[in-house]
Amino acid sequence: MSTLETARDTLASLGRDFHARGWVPATAGNLSARLDNGQVAMTRSGRHKGHLGKEDFMRLDTLGQPLDEGTPSAEAGLHLALYRRWPEIGCVLHTHSPRATVISRRRGKHITLSGYELLKAFDGIDTHEAEVALPIFDNDQDIPRLGARVNAWLDRNPAPPGYLIRGHGLYTWGRDAIAAERHAEALEFLFECELLANR
Ligand SMILES: CSCCC(=O)C(=O)COP(=O)(O)O
Ligand SMILES: [Zn+2]
Fold first, then answer.
1. Most-buried pick from 17, 78, 124, 147 (CB within 10 A)?
2. How far is the centre of ligand 1, averaged over its atoms, from the C-alpha of 154 (Å)?
């Protein structure tokens, strides 16, 4: 958790890094962090994530009530549902990397990752013998409807480190921005391994 100023600086830095890696092209993606006071700082809609300044963020409460002027990310509802579900998470990151996009179109309703040492990047995993299943949801321009499908799945399954939206991208999160970044990086690596292994 953090102050608004720290959250904006941290997310802007992640945005620059993710853009340099090709994970948030052409204004794609959105980034948020929970603040000390329980509010959420989130990127405004349509902003370039490689060039975020403090005016590119706004605050919302976790029910979606805007606390600043302007238009939040079109996908704010997906972020806020995660903050409401898990009080312990402090950061949600959404990326549109080529690997996440391609693998989400090649697989069915989920992707299973097993046998990789890097699975230990996820909280609670201490062996490569673990198995992590990430759900893949069909894309939908109706975010409340998509959010309802995500919530229904999360209600019935153990918490995954992230989920994919088909042909769209990745959602991942963590207790803070460092953990969420680690999860994004680990998932990208694992998607690449899966794609290389199944060419
Ligand atoms: C140009 S990407 C299409 C919208 C999208 O999927 C996304 O992640 C960015 O939306 P936002 O409203 O957060 O800018
Ligand atoms: Zn998106």
1. 78
2. 23
